[in-house]
Write the structure tokens for this entry.
Amino acid sequence: MKPSFAFDGSRRGFLRRSALAAILAAAAPPAFLQAANPGNRLNLAIIGVAGKGESDMYGAAGYDAKTGTSTENVVALCDVDEIRLRKAAEKFPKAQLFRDYRKMLETVKEIDACTVSTPDHHHAPAAIRAMRLKKHVYVQKPLTHSVYEARALLKAARETKVATLMGNQGHSSDDVRSFCELIWAGAIGPVREVHCWTDRPLWKQGIGRPEGSKPVPANLDWDLWLGPAMYREYQEGYHPFSWRGFWDFGTGALGDMACHLMDPACWALKLGSPDSVVAYSQGATGETGPKWEIITYQFPARGALPPVKLMWHDGGKKPDRTLLGLGPNEKVPDNGSLFIGDKGKITCETYGGSPKFTPDSGVREFATPAKTLERSPGHYKEWIDACKGLRANTGSNFEYACPFTEWVLLGNLAVLSQTLVEWDSANLRARNVDVSHLVKGHYRSGWEV
């Protein structure tokens, strides 16, 4: 029998408690946004045009493949790969083409907004340069490559007041909203423990730096691809996909999936900064992330909400099946989350969808909660509307996404430090160990954040 779910409490009372209410009740859009003519088409610049960058390009531009038309203007395309760049230009022939986004931002004055869909180490350098020029920004998850960069982007967002959005598209879904309403309605009581797990990494980790070098393909500007990272010889293993496992360029399995899988917990439980983080892992090196890891975050009480232990599992590690109330022959899904409350237990999929009480949950049925959260008009439309001043901001704007990304990436810091990290969020440092070299990375000259 499919369980139902119910709302406990008044709408007014809920809105006072809801994290989203604080966002929706924020001040009206700044003057420069209000001054924009909502009927105007935005002039978009696309940084990174292949892979996820391609779908972000089409989504932000409102591209219709059947008619070959777009609702917004794409005025500039940037990619370090000439083949990919030329392919994108076939869809947007009027766009100016660039290999270096720094030059693009300096040159094309009519840009209103930028998408940033690059390897992780370019996210903050590209976004912060655009923001300082008062360009609205859409940045793929994870928002940044380091804890320091998340704090820097939050500061820039507050100063420039541009429209911002992190590309964790599940945050714009009805699924995660329904899940939050379910938790807030008290379906399983106060939540004290959460487990999130993924089948990543799908690329090699737990390895050293590849030996030797390969000839750089003629279509690739290797120096620009490296960008802020220290120089190294080209290897086929870096580009275009396996960079995720290398610390210099990516953030491993945690960075790839946590901004999706842990978003329901972050939002529903109103998680701020953890008090401590500790990681158990195998195979991490100075070059790459581990083969597997189990990371434990300890969050303090938040007002009336109790402390929460959140555990992350990847590389084949999953919570014990008995925690999910499963028998010895029942399979734990490859990706998902488990919420353990005082009254019961519930699981959900990657973006908060398909919530189910576990077979051993103390609660097995609950009436469907009322829809108390505003539904999204669509992931990209949220951002486009915010750029045009039609809404105050987006759901996963940097006021939400920067603190979220910051605490997510503390997990990598714990893996690299190989010790319990007692975190002092106010000062961006650990109270018990020196991790300053892990909080902020190094940048080649001309790429600083």
